[in-house]
Write a structure and sequence with these properties.
The complex is a heterodimer of chains A (91) and B (282). With 91 residues, chain A is α+β, with helices and mostly antiparallel strands. Chain A has three helices and four strands. Chain B is an alpha/beta fold. Chain B has ten helices and eight strands. The mean pLDDT of chain B is 92. Classes of the chains: A alpha+beta (91), B alpha/beta (282).
């Protein structure tokens, strides 16, 4: 998200990082997660899954903020996100 | 021991996998159908209550949405057409400690089951009714339903529906429901909170969820599933406590969504115990 100006406490705020997990074979390619991801980090992959749909793929690996919106809007139980602990981020 | 190289490694586990029958997934709902989202939000709400899973029962009737009872890994009933609420009322009367959730579609709950709905609301049965409203009869091929908006095209009304649709929140309120809310599948977090509230509280709770039907409604009305969600984003007005009489579905002027009614009334079970079991201790 682009800020109009940098918030005063931008240095102190720790942004939570997440990692998106996709269960390819459950996906039916509706594209809801791709359209409504607030960080726009998903896109349709070029490969097919077992049912012939294009599952989503993460384009910017380190930009997920673990908001879980893809997880709750997915009608197929095919995508979810997991928080990465801050220690793991620093490595 | 040799391993089969063609066999996939163990699939990663979704956080809701403990509540769904994973061997039946992928489910039958079409790509872009919103029922899966409502179902997953219902499961999240069940999880968030913290009540043991053996205290829940899900009852559903016939239709696309009613398949949910077969996918949930709890005690569930897939009942006859339109009769989900009578079955649920029976369960509730026999075992008042259970949390009974009725998960069904608009055709099942309001067309063939309309009478059961209004009478359960009148008695204030302690049920949570989740109605997935996709504005058509999806499973049978997109016929004009009681909730199809005026002028919308369907299989049986190719030139447009001449009739006015039901206003479900108003119907529920007028019949005596004690909790009435309407959300769309795009407002998933509010929907989960609403279902959670409805499960925890006593009394007849009704939640209408607007959901796209891309194959049988969207295709005939030139709406791709993403267009429908855009419509939900641009043409809905969140107004908690709004008058249900103003909550008719007309995307031209905007659809009012939110929590409309939250009142306390004595439930059917309370009144029955008071009148017919005056000497019992519990």
């Amino acid at each position: 998200m682009a800020f109009w100006r940098v918030p005063l406490d931008a240095q102190e705020i720790q942004v939570i990082k997440g990692v998106v997990c996709i269960i390819d074979d459950r996906c039916k390619g509706c594209g809801y997660c791709i359209e409504f991801c607030p960080k726009d980090i998903l896109k349709f992959s070029d490969k097919f899954n077992r049912k012939g749909y294009h599952p989503p793929v993460v384009t910017k690996l380190d930009e997920c903020v673990n908001c879980h919106y893809c997880e709750i809007i997915c009608p197929e139980f095919a995508i979810y996100s997991v928080e990465i602990t801050p220690a793991a981020v620093q490595k | 021991m040799t391993t089969n190289p063609k066999k996939l490694a163990k699939q990663p586990e979704h956080p809701l996998d403990d509540l769904i029958r994973t061997e039946r997934i992928p489910h039958i709902w079409c790509p872009g159908c919103g029922i899966g989202t409502v179902f997953s939000s219902c499961l999240s709400a069940i999880k968030a209550t913290g009540i043991p899973y053996n205290q829940f029962t899900m009852v559903s009737g016939i239709g696309c949405s009613a398949r949910a009872a077969g996918y949930i890994k709890l005690d569930s009933f897939h009942t006859t057409h339109g009769r989900a609420i009578p079955f649920a009322s029976g369960i509730k009367m026999a075992k008042p400690e259970l949390k009974v959730i009725v998960f069904s579609g608009d055709g099942d709950l309001f067309a063939i089951g309309g009478n059961h709905f209004i009478h359960a609301a009148r008695r204030n049965m302690d049920l949570t009714v989740i109605c997935v409203n996709n504005l058509t009869y999806g499973m049978t091929g997109g016929q004009c339903a009681a909730t199809t908006p005026n002028k919308a095209k369907s299989t049986t009304t190719p030139l447009g529906n001449p009739d006015a649709p039901f206003n479900l929140p108003l119907l529920a309120y007028a019949a005596g429901a004690s909790y009435v809310a309407r959300w769309t599948i795009l407002h998933t977090r509010d929907l989960t909170t609403a279902i959670n509230e409805a499960i925890v509280r006593k009394g007849f709770s009704f939640i209408e969820v607007l959901s796209p039907c891309p194959i049988n409604y969207g295709r005939r009305n030139k709406e791709k599933p993403l267009d429908t969600l855009k419509l939900y984003q641009d043409r809905t007005i969140i107004k908690n406590g709004a008058d249900p009489a103003r909550a008719d579905i007309d995307f031209e002027k905007g659809v009012v969504i939110g929590k409309f009614i939250d009142i306390d009334r004595s439930t059917c079970d309370d009144r029955y115990s008071e009148l017919h079991r005056p000497c019992s201790d519990d």
